[in-house]
Amino acid sequence: xxxxRGHIERLANEIAEDENGPRVGAGGELSGARPxxxxxxxxxLEVRDLVEAILRTGLMLGHVFGDLLEELPADAFVGEDAGxxxxxxxxxxxxxxxxxxxxxxxxxxxxxxxxxxxxTITDLQAAAELAADGDA
Length: 136
Fold this sequence. Notes:
The protein is built from four helices and no strands. It is mainly α. The protein has one domain (2-135). Residues 14-23 have low confidence and may be disordered.
């Protein structure tokens, strides 16, 4: 699974900015996103639905990808990186849905997912710092 994470992180970092896309930092963060201060933001129902969809989909894709990668015979893709081959297969599976949504929607969704990851890490780090300060 670690090899897959490296492939996915590399792909996320390859998102390029064009005149129709959102401003995205190297880690996928959307410009204008700020760290939470005290976690006083009350999420909307849409945000809660988004979190649930991200978790369901992420867990499912991660498990399927990991299981396939672990179960493949060593000689399944001679001369090729099995993780890369699986990523291409997943991309082929998802391509019709992405094509139907349109390039801009796909780029925005990718940027949103990157920003969600960055924000989650930022808030976890802030919580850890608060906990450490409380222990002092």
